[in-house]
Amino acid sequence: MFTSLPIPSSGSITRFVATNPRSFVPPLPPRLHLSLRGNHRPPGTYRSLCCGENSSSSTLQQYSYMESSKESQEYNSNLYPHIEPYSSGFLKVSDIHALYWEQSGNPNGHPVVFLHGGPGAGTSASNRRFFDPEFYRIILFDQRGAGKSTPHACLEENTTWDLVDDIEKLREHLDIPEWQVFGGSWGSTLALAYSQSHPDKVTGIILRGIFLLRKKELDWFYEGGAAAIFPDAWEPFRDFIPENERDNFIVAYNKRLNSDDIDVQISAAKIWTTWELMTAHLMQNEENIKRGEDDNFSLAFARIENHYFVNKGFLPSSSQLLDNVDKIRHIKTVIVQGRYDVCCPMMSAWDLHKAWPEAEFKVIPDAGHSANEPGIAAALVATNEKFKSLLRSASLGKIRELLSCKVALVKTQC
User: Fold this and answer.
1) What GO molecular function terms would the record report (predicted)?
2) Would you call 369 a catalytic residue per the annotation?
3) Parallel/antiparallel/unpaired status of strands 64-65 and 46-47
4) Which terminus has fewer CB within 10 Å in the chain: N or C?
5) CA–CA–CA angle 294, 300, 306 (5° rounding)
6) Strand order in the sheet with 202-208
7) DSSP H helical segments within 8-53, as ranges?
């Protein structure tokens, strides 16, 4: 897919060349939006219309780039320093819900939207650290009922497709033509659903800890499968429910998380949340587990997560996300998966990989589920760096092409 773009003026190109050494890799010029969409072309090739080829004098078709399979360059894998947002606010997305959003990094950089997990977990300041703040315009937002979004822990008008629509509303609100999508765990589910609904708005996709919201995945984690690895963490989760209701823990917890008694809700929420936090790392992280003691965090996390799971993610079928891979097959994508992920076991990432072999698949051999595990965090940063390098290369190639077009046009006129 190609998007029409205005050709930068000869004066702006001349000024750019005069002020930038040949060795400098330029940032994206204003209004020059580049994507990593393959458009079903061989690796290492690109397509663009130049000068008079099927174009008007005022437009040029968008550059589309795919990475060479021979690339062996290594990228930075260290988390970036903490930064603060340069803008934030609330976006009213329905009569009920208002979403908290924030932007950090470079206001003129390449836009990337971070989709948090859960659902219901909300964002945190550390999420900004996966991205180079000099290159990326980093957009974080809390999904309906989560984090700072209001009303807190609300389940009404809260479905996958509501969230997909919210992402589009936020993109339009921030006047972003298209953006890179980054999501892990439930965020990978939402990233797939959004990208398959709006592939023309997505420049590239980074997925971590794949969760396709199928029955076998839910049964693994909530009906005793993961208990074989974490029996000590499982027993409090199991024992909170009477024996006569243990045939379906998701339904049993749903009853308590929606109780008229707020104390019952909070007790159930803390136990539900702690079970997941205790299984999220290869080596248990005590600081992370303590988050389960927070009433507000646990209530949103458990109520919203359970609400989605009892409703099967509001997906038309359990294979919805795999069945629609063709809609995004052409978009440059990287999948990062911890080998020993207990929350979202590797079978789901493997199924997605088999359905989508064009996407790069990275298995981290010494990691579980959390994005904050050293190996996974390093892989996510390095993948963003790779995308950055590809986008900068595409930008440089486009500027050179535009210069050639200008020179050819001048010669023709002379």
Assistant:
1) aminopeptidase activity
2) yes
3) antiparallel
4) C
5) 120
6) 87-92, 98-105, 136-141, 110-115, 179-184, 202-208, 333-338, 360-364
7) 10-19
88, amino acid identity: S
How far apart (Å, rounded) are the C-alpha atoms in residues 178 and 171?
8
Token pair 């994005």 in the structure block, residue: 371
β-pair type (179-184, 110-115): parallel
- In sequence order, the 6+-apart residues with CB closer than 8 A to the CB of 140 are 101, 102, 104, 113, 114, 116, 123, 127, 128
Widest Cα–Cα separation across the chain: 89
CA-CA distance, 375 to 373, in Å (whole number)?
Answer: 6
**Residues contacting 371, CB < 8 A, separation 6+:** 130, 184, 185, 208, 209, 377, 380
d(CA 258, CA 302): 10
Residues in the chain: 414
pLDDT tens digits, 225-256? 999 999 999 999 999 999 999 999 999 999 99
The residue behind tokens 């979004």 is 149
Dist CA 185 CA 208 (whole Å): 6
Q: Where are the beta strands (DSSP E) in 240-324?
A: none
Name the amino acid, one letter, at 273: T
Give me the mean pLDDT over the 17-27 stretch. 39
Which residue in 188, 369, 370, 395 is the catalytic one?
369
Check residues 258 and 413 and name the one with the higher pLDDT.
Answer: 258
Angle, in degrees to the nearest 10, between helices 186-197 and 160-173: 70
* pLDDT at residue 405, as a whole number: 67
Among candidate residues 48, 64, 104, 185, the one labeled active-site is 185
Q: How far apart are CA 379 and CA 208, in angstroms?
A: 10
Whether this prediction's pTM lies above 0.85 is answered by no
CA distances, 137 to each of 132, 195, 240, 392 (Å): 9, 19, 44, 14
- 185 catalytic, yes or no? yes
Distance CA 188, CA 208 (A): 6
- Judging by DSSP bridges, how do beta strands 179-184 and 202-208 pair with one another? parallel
Amino acid at 242: P
| Beta carbons of 330 and 356 less than 8 angstroms apart | no
**CA gap 378, 237 in Å, rounded:** 32
